[in-house]
Design brief:
The protein is of the alpha+beta class. Helix content is 44%, strand content 18%. It is globular.
């Protein structure tokens, strides 16, 4: 697990509680997005007493800090792989077969172009996320 994540939590003013650490550990063990209820089941199995609302709040805080990303097509959360400081300007490659997700930073030139296009239509972009569906290298091999 990225040691920077615990520092970000501390710097944000959030306490580094056992449930928050256990959520980070559970996310770190996974290679694909997980839903809140599935995460709650993992916490219950690990005998960590944390309710659904707390998991939602923790994940929302982690998302703001760039520790996790929500992957809409998978309806789940994934631990951040890149050097993110917030939940913006990331691209996710989602495998339609195995559900694996790879994270890439969106180049600044691409985000600037998207913002310019939005501006030209009178729309002020506040967050840019891109999800690309396809077949990963491993699934293509098999």
């Amino acid at each position: 697990m990225n040691a920077d994540f615990t520092e970000r939590i501390k710097e944000s003013g959030l306490r580094l509680t056992q449930p928050r650490m256990k959520i980070l550990e559970a996310l770190n063990e996974l290679d694909r997005p997980i839903g809140v209820y599935q995460l709650h089941d993992k916490m219950t199995e690990a005998k960590v007493n944390v309710n659904i609302v707390s998991i939602y709040r923790t994940l929302a805080a982690f998302q703001e800090l760039g520790i996790v990303h929500y992957i809409p097509s998978q309806q789940g959360y994934l631990l951040c792989e890149a050097e993110c400081r917030d939940d913006q300007q990331t691209e996710h490659l989602v495998c339609d077969q195995c559900g694996n997700v790879n994270e890439l930073p969106i180049p600044t030139c691409a985000t600037n172009d998207l913002k310019e296009q939005a501006d030209s239509r009178g729309f002020r972009a506040t967050k840019i996320r891109v999800e690309v569906s396809g077949i990963c290298f491993e699934c293509q091999k098999s």
